[in-house]
Amino acid sequence: MFDFFSQHIEYLKGVGPAKAEILKKEARIHTYGDLLEYFPFRYIDRGRFIPISQVRDDRNYVALQGTIKSVEQKGFGAKKRLSAILSDGTGQIELAWFSGLKWLLPKIKPQVRVKVFGKPSVFNHRLSLNHPELEFAAEGNPQEENPGIQPLYTTTERMKNHGLGPKALSGITANLCRQARGSIPEILSQEILERYRLPLREDAFIQIHHPRSMEQAENARQRLKFEELLILQLKILQAKLKKRKSPGWTFEKVGENFLQFYQHNLDFSLTEAQKRVVKEIRADTKTGFQMNRLVQGDVGSGKTIVALMCMLLACDNGFQSCMMAPTEILARQHDASLRKFLRGMKIRTGLLTGSTSRKDRAILLNLLREGQIDILVGTHALLEDEVAFKNLGLAVIDEQHRFGVAQRAKLWAKNRIPPHVLVMTATPIPRTLGMTLYGDLDVSVIDQLPPNRKPVKTVHLTDKDRLRLFAFMKSEIAKGRQIYVVYPLIEESENMDLKDLMDGYESISRAFPVPDYQLSIVHGKMKAEAKEFEMERFKKGETQIMVSTTVIEVGVDVPNATVMVIENSERFGLAQLHQLRGRVGRGGQQSYCILMSSEKLSQDARERLQTMVSTNDGFKIAEADLKLRGPGDLQGTQQSGLLSLKIADIVQDGNIVKAARFTALEILQEDPGLLLAKNQRLVAEMEKHPAGNLWSQIS
């Protein structure tokens, strides 16, 4: 059967073998389909000219018309440039070119009427257009009388040098669109098209490249975004259905360990959110199918307690559990927390990390194989082949985004039927991103903090407030409180960061001298034993101030610490700032987060810090982070392979994500196997797209 999309690009009019090679290498365009999906990033309305007096340097693109007043060559050699002054009676603007001067010089002369298209910028306090496109009135092209909307495509220098600049690409796509008529089948039902008022697929592909109006271009974009997101959501939901049908262990009873812990060991009441999540997990483990559940909860919301209660449920039903953490510090913290909660109970726990001695490891692994360990906490070390359980029923993964797909899959193989999987994250995921990134998991949200928690007060100070900061720190220490002072640690500038940390430590040592004050210091260059020693001193209250890099982002729980000072806070992302702030406020006292920065800040940095000051809500912070940085920068999304979408944007297109999710659910409710004839074209399109393959690897 003829497939228009798979035709080789060299056969398209205006391309040929030489240009086809450039398109393949520079833009990954091999076929007609690749070119159809090489969407314009912007459009110029060439019929809408503005007066020069209205030009501002914040405009993306302008269309101007006027008369060349003067022309001048400036500079020498490689720095030679051509400068022309354009006037339209309302004002003047400089036009500048740095190459192609030989072609331009005969054409650009005083008194010549031109149309100019380009992006305004400021040079030497003067508005200018660099390398604008020109159309000369003398050319007399009849099509230019009503030029309409011109698409702009991403191009490289090499493409431009081989005659494949934006204008040439526009001409080639025009040829393609003429050939496309009658060759692009519809994949959506009439009902879906009518419900969302979407244009036909063929019309959308043609109109996105050559629209008659900006409205038509936008309608085409909406249609193609919906299609892309619908295909993605169908793949995600299919993976979810497949997982739900995977056999799993049945936890039939709530036994004595669970009840003893709940009735006697818990010295506080669970929040309603915690109770709800435990019930959801309990329901999952009774179905006979494998559980795959994500628990989202802000720092301090009590995810560890929920995970422990589920591990006790496994224990009561004759199964072992494991809890995997991304760092040794966090693994040790979890191990200490579990042992504290389980005091007086007969539950046997173990800890396995990279630094576990060979002798201890051999003993531990032997006990694990014999079923003498109920709960094993550890790092990546849990994934090693020699780690064998007698009967693993539940795997808890903390901060899932720090583990790769292949790593997590190794846990699945630790029993003949894969264990139930409980994923925990303290990084709140905005709903639309969650539908995509974690769309194959059932999601539970712990959206309440324990009742004794007071919101952390956050303030932004600059270097000029340093003495005020030190005075505040001394007043908190006088109340018996402890303080973190954290410096950024970014691998590319590790030496500079370490210098900042040491300079800061020296400065704090002078302001807080011994014997009145005791300081701890922790950074990545220290040996594990030295770090552990310093952290223990701080936990025991032997030191009042902990100066550290972001190693304390996770894993240090000191209820008496009430102040978090974050130095160079403009260098941190929102998610990391929020995680660091969550290290304080763990007791009943009022706690504070102080964001220190320089006076000069970029607009993005200012927005980040203002967001932190204005809210403690992790989900609002995650939404702001998503808007500021985009999904590709959020922790862990890069590894998912999901967000390389061609036209849709998870951040900007939240409503389309929701509509696509709803529609995908409807389609799969009616046709779970996608076997009906009306869905076959959609299935064929799904098979062409790699997005979503993440789940097929772990299903």
Account of the 3D structure:
It is a single chain. The chain is of the alpha/beta class. Helices cover 40% and strands 17% of the residues. A 7-stranded mixed beta sheet has the order 6-7-4-3-2-5-8, with no helix packed on it. Strand 19, helix 18 and strand 20 form a beta-alpha-beta unit. Helix 7 crosses helix 8 and helix 9 packs antiparallel against helix 11. The protein is globular and about 95 Å long. The protein starts with 15 loop residues before the first helix and ends with a helix. The C terminus is likely disordered.
Helix content: 25-40%
Which ranges are low-confidence, i.e. pLDDT below 50, for 5 or more consecutive residues? 139-146, 632-642, 691-699
Class by alpha and beta content: alpha/beta
Please state the average pLDDT score.
84
Report on the biggest sheet: 7 strands, mixed
Q: Using the alpha-carbon principal axes, give the shape.
A: globular
The number of E-state strands comes to 22
Distance between the termini: 33 Å
Strand order of the largest sheet: 6-7-4-3-2-5-8
Question: Key features?
Answer:
25 helices; globular; 699 residues; alpha/beta; disordered C terminus; 40% helix
SSE layout:
Blueprint: H1 16-27, H2 32-36, E1 42-45, E2 62-74, E3 81-87, E4 92-97, H3 101-104, E5 113-118, E6 120-123, E7 126-130, E8 133-136, E9 149-152, H4 157-161, H5 166-180, H6 190-196, H7 201-209, H8 214-244, H9 256-265, H10 272-284, E10 292-297, H11 303-316, E11 320-324, H12 328-341, E12 349-352, H13 358-369, E13 375-378, E14 392-398, H14 405-412, E15 420-425, H15 431-437, E16 442-446, E17 457-462, H16 466-478, E18 482-486, H17 494-511, E19 519-522, H18 528-539, E20 545-548, E21 561-566, H19 574-581, E22 592-597, H20 603-614, H21 618-629, H22 637-640, H23 654-670, H24 680-688, H25 693-698
Parallel strand pairs: 4-7, 10-15, 10-16, 11-13, 11-14, 12-13, 14-15, 17-22, 18-20, 18-21, 19-20, 21-22
Antiparallel strand pairs: 1-9, 2-3, 2-5, 3-4, 5-8, 6-7
Helix pairs in contact: 5-7, 7-8, 8-23, 9-11, 10-11, 15-23, 20-21
